[in-house]
Amino acid sequence: MDAFHYLLNGFATALQWQNIIFAFVGVLIGTVVGVLPGIGPISGVALLIPVTASLTGGLPPEEAATSAIILLAGVYYGAMYGGSTTSILLNTPGESSSVVTVLDGYPMAKQGRAGVALAIAAIGSFVAGIVSLVGLVFLAEPLSDVALKLSPADEFSLMILGLCALSGLAGKSVTKALIMTVFGLLLATIGMDNVSGVARFTFDMPELYSGLEFLTIAVGVFALGEVFKTILERDANEGEIAKISRILPTKQDLKESAGPIIRGSLVGFFKGIVPGSGATLASFLAYLLEKKISKNPEKFGKGAIAGVAAPESANNAASGGAMIPLLTLGIPGTGTTAVLMGALIMYNVQPGPLLFDEHPTIAWGLIASMFIGNLMLLILNMPLVKVFAKLIETPPKYLIPMIVAISIFGVYAVRVSVFDLVLLLICGVVGYFLAKNDFPMAPLVLGLVLGPMIENNLRRALTTSNGDFSIFIEKPVSLVFLIIAVLWISVPLIMKMRGKKVVVNVEG
Amino acid sequence: MSKTFDRYASLLFLVLGAAFLIGSQNISASAYGSNVGPNIFPLGLGALLVLLSLRLFYETFKYKQEEKKQGPALDYKRFLIILVAALLYVLLLEEIGYVVSTFLFLLVGFQTMSKGKWLSTLLISGAFSFGIYFLYVNVLDGSLPGLPAWLGF
Fold first, then answer.
1. Where does the chain cross the membrane (chain A) (predicted)?
2. Spacing of C-alpha A236 from chain mean position
3. Which of A342, A354, B39, B84 has CA 20 to 30 A from A2's CA?
4. Which residues in chain A touch residue B88, judged by CB atoms under 8 angstroms apart?
């Protein structure tokens, strides 16, 4: 069977009525999450894992996993659409990947072209979503075929590469990012060892035997961490919300933004595939590219439509591109995809090369649902943009305590243990203070998710080599991965030492 | 970047790394005839964490003297009230039931965020706690601690 055939089967899955509803709810909540300040895609996805777990409780396991991941992925790319709304209307980005959109989006709004800017952002996001999905369809099979041929040693090195890629670009200090990665890996060792059944670091506490729950930690550090930040730093919205008048862009607008949308999509897609770079960097690069090749670069920053079209396309394409390493290699490249991976593992579905063989319904159903979801988002965002804009005015007074209550409900619904709830609060407090001091949280969660797999591959490889560590540099593929991993960490460091400014990923 | 915070954090991670390092000495070093046991991974990582925190500790000495930029003062009072309320909420959840504890927590939370508007506070807290309980328990067949028995229901 070829990719096209698989995709058709995927559509058959995605078009089941419950999956259409799940995709719709996902993109709707995603848009809301993108619009609401103080809650980003990563905490949105984390918060919704327990909700989807209870919604899909009655379905058979395979269908439950498909529906859940369809909803959660919908939140992820839906947030990319929603994030532009606050950037354009309020001069504050709803999430970090829309930071660049502010530069030209807000000036456009001040000129009375807010509606047009929002429409172009939505159209650009749609085109980009489709571009990255087409890429995903064509790359998924060949990449997972290659990945299937990897030995345990190769896989270990590939995962190390994934961790280094995220750490090298996450936050201001590589040392801190690496500390968080290693700490995440260490937390993953708590509990019963899968291979030998030995209890590690459990101190005879029954709660610890099954290990620290990924969900509890993710909701704690991301959702509660952000909530505490809002409470402590009075992240209130001040300033005027621009009015939306005309929504449909003119022919001239479309003509001016066609190029930037296509270029932004391509930049975003390739940037998204590379682990660690994520949507924020992609939108920066797309914006800089447009400014460089534009005939009149002085218009940028004063309301150039290309300055909205390019970054908004790029961040959406990047979120699609980021699904590729997650689904085919089992290596999440960003914090949000790490959370998605954790969700899949909760359903006993292991992302990676075997996903397409063992669970084609899930993999292709998800891909097909993303086509449908993007179409829904375009339809939602064009006429309803005024309704979403109203959401910006949601008073934090009600929003903040409710997010806390939803986090607690969610974790309790899945875990039914007070121990996890206390752990949740601790993670929230610790997460806030660490994140405030530039200790990035994404590597921690990635370490926690990848930990058991890295350990498994490490031990399998070492067992075949009788405990000899040189197996990792004797195998050529593994050696190449390790060299790239080292370069990934060291090149930005060397560039920093030479006084060059390195763009880092600020996406949580 | 805060020099003091980073210094204390590096020491904390140093202690944690050392604890994992020492803790993994007690774990079996072999499994089923393989000489690669469950101890090797935490052992190596613990050592790595120790090295990295030493590196961070060293880096803190090179931080430029930070200028005291006075950001807006952090609202610790509001934060502590909500944190303590949340802690009581999770500890009492199984004692007094989901609806009551959630209602009380939201009441405190809303009023701490900003005082006043009692009517909408009561309405939203009530709707949220009853709504979630009803949806989850009656529609989705989940289970949450119900109303406390001493209320006589």
1. 20-49, 116-140, 208-228, 326-349, 361-381, 402-435, 477-495
2. 25
3. A342
4. none
Within a domain: A245? no
- Flag whether pLDDT at A137 surpasses 80: yes
Q: What residues make up the domain containing B104?
A: 76-151
pLDDT digits (tens, 9 = 90+) for A385-436: 778 878 777 777 888 899 999 999 988 988 888 999 999 999 999 999 998 8
Does the pLDDT at position B112 exceed 70?
Answer: yes
Query: A396-415 vs B118-133: helix axis angle to the nearest 10?
Result: 20
User: Among A189, A183, A162, A163, which Cα is nearest to A452's?
Assistant: A189
Distances (CA, A) of A108 to A184, A243, B128: 43, 11, 39
The three-state (H, E, C) secondary structure of chain B, written as one string: CCHHHHHHHHHHHHHHHHHHHHHHHHCCCCECCECCCCCHHHHHHHHHHHHHHHHHHHHHCCCCCCCCCCCCCCCHHHHHHHHHHHHHHHHHHHHHCHHHHHHHHHHHHHHHHCCCCHHHHHHHHHHHHHHHHHHHHHHCCCCCCCCCHHHCC
| pLDDT tens by residue, B32-64 | 656 677 888 889 999 999 999 999 998 888 877
Shortest alpha-carbon distance between residue A59 and chain B (Å): 12
CB of B153 less than 8 A from some CB of A? no
Using the predicted structure, report yes or no on whether residue A239 has a pLDDT greater than 70. no
HEC states along A306-364? HHHHHHHHHHHHHHHHCHHHHHHHCCCCCHHHHHHHHHHHHCCCCCCCCHHHHCHHHHH
Q: Is residue B95 part of a domain?
A: yes
Name the closest residue on chain A to residue B42, using Cα atoms: A186
Domain assignment of residue A385, given as a range: 3-233+250-497
- Please indicate, yes or no, whether residues B44 and B80 belong to a single structural domain of this protein: no
Considering the domain boundaries, does residue A473 fall inside one?
yes
Q: What is the pLDDT of residue A112?
A: 83
pLDDT tens figures, A447-470: 998 888 898 889 888 888 887 888
Q: Which of B15, B36, B60 is the last residue of a domain?
A: B60
> Does any domain span residue B124?
yes
Tell me: do B56 and B80 sit in the same domain.
Answer: no
Helix segments in A437-503, DSSP class H: 442-464, 471-474, 476-497
ipTM of the prediction: 0.90
Question: pLDDT grade, residue A376 (50/70/90)?
Answer: very high
Residues B92 and B141 in one domain: yes
Q: In this structure, is residue A367 part of a structural domain?
A: yes
Residue B65 has pLDDT above 70, yes or no: no
Residue B127 lies in a domain: yes
Rounded to a whole number, what is the distance in Å from the CA of B153 to chain A's nearest CA? Answer: 23
